[in-house]
Design goal:
By secondary structure, the protein is mostly beta strands. It is built from no helices and twelve strands. The chain has a four-stranded antiparallel beta sheet, with no helix packed on it. A four-stranded antiparallel beta sheet has the order 5-12-10-7, with no helix packed on it. A four-stranded antiparallel beta sheet has the order 9-8-6-11, with no helix packed on it.
């Protein structure tokens, strides 16, 4: 049995969860009064099909195809400050940027993070694509 105390608008509630049966109905006692509460079932994560074979290059309409980091000198790359998903690429290969210009938008922890150029230069490589998940320190855009 789990007990909790809540204060809502200055009123204190003592809540005890006595148990949950097979039909996902919980017996809950609030300030001494018993209630039967139907629990919502947790959504099962979507299962993706695994396809074996040679990966195909996806084409993106809004920017040049992403290059592999293995073929590019990433010493001057803007890197992901934390794990997240690329939601917008604001530059193309060959664009000139100034220090402080936003080049990538990275969504992490449900917040959009504008990643900015640290120096002025020319975009020589884009190493990611929209919708791609990246880890911390992943090279994203090379500016030289």
């Amino acid at each position: 049995m789990k007990e909790y105390k809540y204060t809502i608008d200055g009123k204190e509630y003592k809540v005890e969860i006595q148990g949950i049966d097979e039909q996902a109905v919980a017996t809950v006692v609030v300030n001494g009064e018993e209630f039967k509460v139907q629990m919502e079932k947790e959504e099962e994560p979507e299962k993706k099909k695994v396809v074996l074979g040679k990966p195909q290059q996806e084409k993106s309409d809004d920017s040049a195809p992403a290059q592999s980091a293995a073929n590019v000198n990433t010493a001057n790359a803007i890197k992901a400050p934390l794990p997240g998903v690329i939601t917008e690429i604001k530059v193309n290969v060959g664009d000139s940027v100034n220090a402080g210009d936003t080049v990538i938008v990275l969504e992490a922890m449900k917040m959009a993070n504008n990643l900015q150029a640290e120096k002025a230069g020319k975009v020589t490589a884009i190493l990611v694509k929209n919708g791609e998940s990246v880890m911390e320190d992943t090279p994203l855009v090379v500016i030289e």
